[in-house]
Design a protein that fits this description.
alpha+beta
Length: 208
């Protein structure tokens, strides 16, 4: 549209100049046809010029409004972005504080566990030392142990004077006087007058 207006302005200004020069050079200025064309061209040119300026003003006003709108929109976006940035900074600071608190708690727990282990080790060492002392005291106060009786003296009977042969009814082994297992519990003893009698009863002689 602007291009057409410009082109029309150029055409009519050329026509205005052409008819104006032709009109003013004419010796007889009574040529109504040239005068009429000159005035018509001039009138149309003026109208086009005014219309073109008005269109420019409208366009300029529209452009300014758009710029103003863009300016306000950009300002609003800046405020929103700034607000979001501040919110993110606050959130980051909060998360950092939480991380620091968590690390402090973790360090406290580790220190507490180390102290508990150290106390437990110290207590165990004290208990071991006390046990050694008690054992040493007990060994000092322990009476001398009596020698155990020999195998020949064990049992609740003594057949040495009778000279009888004694058999163990559980093991079916007989012992003659002087052998290791001669003396035994009377509840397990079986008496024989001779070795042949013991063998006949199914007993065998002890080796020692």
């Amino acid at each position: 549209m602007n291009f057409i207006l410009k082109l029309a302005e150029i055409i009519f200004i050329i026509l205005t100049i052409y008819y104006g020069v032709k009109f003013f050079r004419s010796k007889n200025r009574r040529g109504q046809g040239i005068k009429k064309r000159f005035l018509t061209s001039l009138f149309v040119f003026v109208l086009l010029f005014l219309f073109g300026n008005q269109s420019k003003e409208v366009k300029s006003s529209t452009t300014d409004n758009v710029k103003i709108v863009k300016k306000y929109v950009g300002k609003d976006k800046y405020k929103i972005a700034k607000k979001e940035h501040l919110a993110l900074l606050a959130k980051k600071a909060k998360l950092t504080k939480q991380a620091d608190d968590t690390q402090d708690k973790k360090d406290d727990l580790v220190a507490k566990k180390d102290k508990e282990k150290e106390d437990a080790g110290r207590e165990q060492a004290q208990q071991a030392q006390q046990a050694e002392q008690n054992q040493a005291q007990a060994s000092q106060q322990k009476p001398e142990s009596k020698p155990e009786p020999s195998p020949a003296s064990k049992g609740d009977m003594n057949t040495a004077s009778s000279g009888q042969i004694v058999g163990n009814k559980n093991s079916h082994i007989y012992h003659v006087p002087g052998q290791r297992g001669y003396n035994m519990n009377s509840s397990n003893a079986v008496y024989f007058q001779s070795e042949q009698e013991a063998i006949a009863a199914g007993y065998r002689k002890a080796k020692v």
